[in-house]
Write a structure and sequence with these properties.
Distance between the termini: 63 Å
Strand content: 35-45%
Order of helices and strands: EHHEEHEEEEEEEEEEEEEHEEH
Number of strands: 18
Helix content: 10-25%
Shape: elongated
Largest sheet: 6 strands, mixed
Number of helices: 5
Length: about 270
C-alpha cells in the first residue's frame, strides 16, 4: 500500500486561556454592545396572580392582526381577556365583528392569536409567535425586544491551521490542518424531544471538511471542556439597545415616559 511521504507535524495543546481569549470571553458583552435582561421572578408571579384589567401597549413596529390592518402601540389601553391559561396573560388588540386579535404574553415569549366567534365561543384560527425575547419584567411593566435571546458557550469541532515549520508564522509558508475543538458563543436552543426515540441535540455535532495541506498534522486535543467550564454568560436573554421593543405597562404615565426615553428608536419599519 502506498503511504504518505509528507512530514508529520505535532501541534501542541491549546490551553483554556488561549481558547477563552480567541472567543473574546473577557469582554464579550462590551464588544457586542449587549445588555442583560432584568427579570424579577417575584414580580412576574404577581402579574399572574393579580392580573390587571388592562394594560397600556407600547410597540415600536405595527402588529399585524389579521383583523383590521395593523395595530401600533402608542400607549393605548388594551383590555385583558381571561383565557384561564396559567402563567400567561392575554390582551385584546383589536376586534372587528366576529373576528379579533389577541396578544399573548408568556414567561419567555409573545404571540398574536387570531380568533373567530363561533357558537358564542371564541375559537382560535392561528397563532403567530413574534421574533423577540423578554428583556424586562417588574411590577410596572413587561418588555420584549426583537432578537433578544439566551446565549450559550459551547465546544465545537473546527479546523486548526498549523505551520509545517515549527519556527514559521502559521499564516505564512507551507501549512497543514487538523480537526480540533474551539470555543464558540451561539444562541441557546432547546433539544428536540420526540414522543418516542432518542432525544436529538439542538445543534448537530458535525465535523468540518479538512482542507488539503502541505504536511500532515496531529493535533493534541485542546482544553475546550475546561475553557467551557470557566466561561460564564448570564442565563437570561441578551439584547442590544437598538433592538425594537414591545412592552405593556400598568399605567399610562409610565408607558409615555418610556416612549419618550426611546425617542427616535421607536420608529421601526415593517410589521410584526
Amino acid at each position: 500500500m502506498a503511504t504518505s511521504t509528507r512530514a508529520v507535524v505535532h501541534a501542541p495543546r491549546l490551553d483554556a486561556d488561549a481558547l477563552l481569549a480567541a472567543a473574546g470571553m473577557a469582554s464579550y458583552l462590551a464588544d457586542h454592545d449587549l445588555r442583560v435582561a432584568s427579570i424579577e421572578g417575584e414580580a412576574r408571579e404577581r402579574w399572574f396572580t393579580r392580573e390587571p384589567s388592562g394594560v397600556f401597549l407600547y410597540a415600536e413596529r405595527p402588529i399585524e392582526t389579521g383583523v383590521e390592518a395593523t395595530v401600533r402601540g402608542a400607549c393605548q389601553r388594551v383590555p385583558l381577556w381571561d383565557d384561564n391559561v396559567l402563567n400567561g396573560l392575554s390582551f385584546v388588540l383589536s376586534r372587528h365583528g366576529d373576528e379579533r386579535a389577541v396578544l399573548e404574553i408568556g414567561q419567555d415569549r409573545v404571540a398574536v392569536t387570531d380568533q373567530r366567534l363561533e357558537a358564542r365561543r371564541w375559537q382560535t384560527n392561528g397563532v403567530r409567535g413574534l421574533p423577540m425575547g423578554v428583556i424586562a419584567w417588574d411590577d410596572g411593566h413587561i418588555a420584549f425586544a426583537e432578537g433578544a435571546e439566551i446565549q450559550e458557550v459551547a465546544c465545537v469541532h473546527s479546523v486548526r491551521t498549523v505551520s509545517c515549520s515549527a519556527d514559521a508564522d502559521p499564516w505564512v509558508g507551507p501549512r497543514g490542518h487538523c480537526i480540533d475543538r474551539s470555543l464558540v458563543v451561539r444562541p441557546w436552543r432547546a433539544p428536540f424531544v420526540p414522543h418516542v426515540g432518542q432525544v436529538s441535540p439542538a445543534y448537530p455535532d458535525t465535523y468540518p471538511s479538512l482542507p488539503e495541506g502541505s504536511c500532515e498534522v496531529e493535533c493534541e486535543p485542546s482544553a475546550c471542556d475546561e475553557a467551557m467550564a470557566r466561561a460564564q454568560l448570564p442565563r437570561v436573554p441578551l439584547y442590544a439597545e437598538q433592538d425594537l421593543v414591545l412592552a405593556v405597562f400598568r399605567t399610562q404615565s409610565a408607558c409615555r415616559a418610556y416612549a419618550s426615553s426611546r425617542g427616535s428608536q421607536g420608529s421601526g419599519s415593517g410589521v410584526w
